[in-house]
Amino acid sequence: MSSPRPKSPRTPVLPKKEDKEESFWDKIGTIGRKKRIKEVQDVQAEGKYAIDSPGSPTAPEIPPEEYSLLDNEERAIIEPRSLEDPRVKELIQVLIDWINDELAMQRIIVKDISEDLYDGQVLQKLLEKLTETKLDVPEVTQSEEGQRQKLAIVLRAVNRVLFGTSKPAQKWSVDSVHSKNVVSILHLLVALARHFRAPVRLPENVSVNVVVVKKDAPNQLSHRTYIEDITTTYDDLGMKCERDAFDALFDHAPDKLQVVKKSLITFVNKHLSKVNLEVIDLDTQFHDGVFLCLLMGLLEGFFVPLYDFHLTPQDFDQKVHNVSFAFELMQDVGLAKPKARPEDIVNLDLKSTLRVLYNLFTKYKNMA
């Protein structure tokens, strides 16, 4: 969480000394300084050459400050150009919005996932909110060692929630999070969002280019580049799922998609017209769950009590309640549990809506 940093005291302005002739010892000192500067420039040039060399098909862009390594030390760095990828930007913004929604009552606002999360303070508050528990950690820590100790406690708690053990996770650690490693922080937040079924739609198949720079010897750097997957394709349980016909329609046959939508509109209106209701736009008219609840009653011939759902939902939670209730009705009449999450329907995810309606169409299409 960003907080105003105290400004460093300004160096007092001293009276300018009169120019004098440079002494022999001054010249020796100047030569030494120039030599050290030249050594730094050589290391940076060597690093740039290693990264831009013809052996790399796409030369990664690495800030010069990342060249400051000890002998045999490795450092993994996300390529700056990856952070400009629209899908990566979208993922980061979705996660930031989710955190801010969760912590709105505590007046916590996250603007940058690395700068605001590295010290463990926001992660602590987020985990406490999601688990409805209180972590036994100091509220405020100023020193770096205090931050790392607090972060270690928070990450152990996260690992227990996600994996049932407090052992270190493979994709994040105290060192990587505290050093503001964006890849590690993204992995951590995506895992939390999936585990707690956050009411957001994470962009699928997001990946970034990561460069591992190693200092092999003085003034000699080597590098290797690999692609790190941050998100993949998920079903409602957060596991990988196979692509289905709707994925193919969206990707390769938008004209056929319109035919499917028209058929589904005809199907639902055939039954909703019995209570003088009509669907014009599948993209938006099912997101509050009202038509789904009424449609289930019409298809199965029973009355759905109005006190069981919100006929005019006013907020997100009421809409989620409606869709969840409609899913329960579907399972009560023998339909399989929908793979879509209620939150996906409420968030206007068209694929999820079409999948739910198509399951109804398959069972009831021949019904008068």
Molecular structure report:
- The protein has helices at 24-52, 86-102, 113-117, 121-131, 144-163, 174-178, 182-195, 245-252, 254-272, 290-300, 316-332, 342-346, 350-364; strands at 74-78, 207-217, 220-229.
- It is mostly helical.
- It is built from 13 helices and 3 strands.
- A hairpin with a 2-residue loop joins β2 (207-217) and β3.
- The protein starts with 23 loop residues before the first helix and ends with a helix.
- α4 runs parallel beside α5 (144-163) and α8 crosses α9.
- It has a 3-stranded antiparallel beta sheet with strand order 1-2-3, with helices on one face.
- Helix content is 48%, strand content 7%.
- It folds into 2 domains: 66-231, Actin-binding Protein, T-fimbrin, domain 1, CATH 1.10.418; 245-365, Actin-binding Protein, T-fimbrin, domain 1.
Structural domain count = 2
Give the neighbour order of strands across the main sheet.
1-2-3
- Low-confidence runs: 1-20, 47-59, 236-242
Using the coordinates shown, work out and report the CATH topology of the largest domain: Actin-binding Protein, T-fimbrin, domain 1
Envelope shape: elongated
- Second-tier CATH architecture of the largest domain: Orthogonal Bundle
Q: Which bin fits the share of residues in helices?
A: 40-55%
Sequence of secondary-structure elements: HEHHHHHHEEHHHHHH
CATH class of the largest domain: Mainly Alpha
Give average pLDDT, whole number.
Answer: 77
In whole angstroms, how far apart are the ends? 59 Å
Derived structural class: mainly alpha
Question: What is the tally of helical segments?
Answer: 13
Strand tally: 3
Query: In this structure, how is the largest beta sheet organized?
Result: 3 strands, antiparallel
- Name of the CATH superfamily of the largest domain: Calponin-like domain
Radius of gyration: 28 Å
Q: What portion of residues belong to β-strands?
A: 5-15%
